[in-house]
Amino acid sequence: MQCSRYDLQITIVKGLPCTVYNKTYDNGETFRLDCRTQCTCQNGTYACASLCPQENISPQGLCRHPRLVEVPGQCCREWMCDNVNMERPPNCEALVTPWAECSSQCGLGLSRRMSNANEACKPNNETRLCQIRPCHSPPLVNAKYARHHHIRKGHECKATIKSTTPVRLKFGDCRSRKTFHPKRCGAACPSSGSGGSGIVCAPELSTTVKVEFLCRSPVEGHDRLDGAVPGDDLWEPVHRPFSATADDYVHSVYVDVEWIVKCTCRRSTD
């Protein structure tokens, strides 16, 4: 069959690139302005989102004089609160160490650091709750849709997974007043090769949030965290409306919690 001069010509139109600070990015390309800001080029313009969303949410309630502080070795700044209306010594140099890794690879754990944000300007141990993933992680696909959904090869190990249903944070006899959609790191994946190491996922970027918990017992201070049992699930699915009064959750306490922003997966060297 011969083609006429009127044959249809198909032209593929590509989206426009973006030029940001003398660097050019292709349409659809994701890039970072800095360690706190991630952007995506969209046909000549770009949209950005914060990788440290908790920096924009000032803690309320019992947090006095909230302020953002830099943490060595960590990109996201963290909110620091003064427990009392204090005046620090004029020659007090701020000392805040990075948070240690979560003490548990699955389930509830604890993370600690040293800080001198107190009236005497003396280094004190600070503790926060953390959970990299539940010990019994839910599947990537809801069972309702699993029959019709196929996970593509290479996507079995997803680094960062956000809860699709609201949960309350819990430890001991305490439950968070609000519900959340936290993120977790993917479960460890076996190696596809023979004799190779598996894939492990861990937090790459996280921040610290101060969460209000309602508790049944009136314990205060660090003694409150004695009720945190390692390996328990920090997240409790919301099955019914929460009535603090009816369930005797009447004692309010604010607790630091590690909030995962992004995880990364690497090949295990073990």
TrEMBL record:
GO terms for biological process: cell adhesion; positive regulation of cell differentiation; signal transduction. Pfam families: TSP1_CCN (PF19035), VWC (PF00093). SUPFAM superfamilies: FnI-like domain. The keyword Signal applies. Residues 16-82 form the VWFC domain. GO terms for molecular function: heparin binding; integrin binding. Signal peptide: none annotated. One of its GO terms (cellular component) is extracellular matrix. It comes from the Eukaryota. Keywords: Signal. This is Protein CYR61. The lineage of its organism: Eukaryota, Metazoa, Ecdysozoa, Arthropoda, Hexapoda.
